[in-house]
Specification:
This protein is mostly helical. The chain is 61% helix and 4% strand. The protein is globular.
């Protein structure tokens, strides 16, 4: 058992509206997205990708009396907030849409998913290298922290100075030499202080300061677009929703910092190992805290890298952590369906994300995929679990009989098949069954039938 210190439930900052009011504000921010989600859920084949196909875009604009640009923006927000899900050429309502009018927690989780995906809502400036954009996204939590701690308007120069410092720290942490002049950039002032912006792709002589100013502009406008802050002349202020969201994430970091393992500072692999013996609730708390200290994109990428490794336990735990990420992880999870070692986990993740009961999610797996997953789970148990668990794991196989299981396990080609069968044979109390399992292990090892 892991000993965890407890503390009283933290209270939000003074002046934070009640959750019901925060949910009302979130519903207002996402009002067009909800309308479009309801339309998409009831319309025949609204499209397979975001933005909507041209013909569907026109139908939605006419039906909802919105401009095509409003429909396109609302469609993207609805997907990012988990209000709609695409299945082939059909859009279906997400579970959050079904709970939207009655469940304030579902509404707030949907808005936070949109908040976490702000960099996808508002396109980055053209002509800026992807690395610089990624650095800005990674630096934004510090900008938000300053806004939250200031409890009021913060001037753009102060925010720009903090952004520049954080980007410089990222360069230093990665042992990078500043690129200096020559990065694609252009001089501008943040938060719309000037209306004229040269095309950054046409400017090659800007400085790092110019680039940071341009990226700060983009970040502030993106956060304003999701309702997290408001922009004034030369200053920015968090909205009540934004203030609450930043406070929640800071609290998650503080909770993790108090945990005995200190998972907040660990790599994904070490964090997952630290959570391996926690019960599901505390483990999810640790995942949330670890995620809160990182950008969504980098966290998802790190978790998937761990999932591709040889440790089957970490593979399963990585997808548990990705369940906490929710909607922002959906494109990356869908993208790994072509990787055999990740496909069963990704299919189950997507099935649950799309609203299927976890007990029924196994139905999305083919027999071969289910067998592969059985071997992978057995490998995790053999490496990290107890003997009795491995024996009981036999009962979870879809084949129903040991001979049928052994036939299909031999055919599935999992790299850990031999080790799993040897461990199972050593653990099983039935001598005849253990002998059959050992024979199967030998046949796989030697390539025999």
């Amino acid at each position: 058992m892991t000993t965890r210190r407890t503390r009283p439930a933290p209270r939000p900052p003074e002046g934070t509206p009640p959750r019901a009011e925060l949910a009302r504000q979130a519903r207002t921010v996402l009002a067009d997205a909800v309308r479009i989600a309801h339309w998409a859920a009831g319309a025949p084949g609204p499209g397979t990708t975001a933005p909507l196909a041209a013909h569907a875009l026109e139908r939605a604009a006419t039906a909802l009396e919105l401009s095509p640009a409003q429909v396109r923006a609302g469609w993207d927000r609805a997907r990012l907030a988990g209000l709609i899900e695409l299945h082939g050429d059909t859009a279906r309502p997400g579970w959050r849409l079904r709970a939207w009018d009655r469940d304030d927690s579902a509404v707030l989780r949907g808005w936070v998913a949109l908040f976490d995906a702000w960099s996808l809502v508002h396109a980055a400036p053209a002509g800026i290298e992807a690395g610089a954009v990624a650095e800005a996204v990674e630096a934004v939590p510090q900008v938000l922290s300053l806004l939250q701690l200031s409890a009021g308007p913060v001037t753009v120069p102060a925010l720009l100075d903090l952004l520049g410092q954080r980007v410089a720290e990222l360069h230093e942490e990665r042992c990078e030499v500043p690129l200096g002049p020559g990065r694609p950039a252009t001089a501008t002032t943040a938060a719309g202080a000037t209306a004229d912006r040269p095309d950054p792709a046409a400017t090659t002589g800007g400085t790092d300061a110019d680039l940071n100013a341009l990226l700060l502009d983009w970040a502030l406008e993106g956060l304003a677009a999701v309702g997290a802050l408001t922009l004034g002349h030369g200053h920015a202020t968090l909205t009540p929703l934004g203030n609450w969201a930043v406070w929640v994430k800071l609290e998650q970091i503080c909770v993790a910092a108090q945990s005995p393992a200190g998972n907040i500072e660990q790599s994904a692999a070490d964090m997952l190992l630290g959570c391996a013996r926690l019960t599901p609730g505390p483990a999810r708390d640790e995942y949330r805290a670890w995620l809160a200290a990182r950008t969504v994109g980098s966290a998802v990428a790190e978790l998937l890298t761990v999932a591709r490794g040889q440790d089957a336990l970490l593979r399963g735990l990585a997808f548990e952590a990705l369940r906490v990420v929710g909607a922002p992880a959906e494109p990356e999870v869908r993208a790994v369906l072509g990787e055999p070692s990740l496909r069963p986990y990704a299919l189950l993740w997507l099935a649950e994300y799309e609203g299927n009961d976890p007990d029924d999610a196994q139905d999305v797996l083919s027999r071969e995929e289910a067998t592969w997953l059985w071997v992978d789970t057995a490998a995790a148990v053999a490496d990290h679990g107890e003997t009795g668990l491995l024996v009981r794991h036999l009962d979870t196989a879809v084949q129903g009989t040991v001979p049928a299981l052994l036939d299909e396990v031999r055919a599935v080609g999992h790299p850990r098949t031999v080790q799993v069968l040897v461990a199972l044979a050593a653990a099983h109390p039935d001598p005849a069954l253990a002998k059959a399992v050992r024979r199967a292990a030998f046949q796989v090892h030697t390539g025999g039938a």
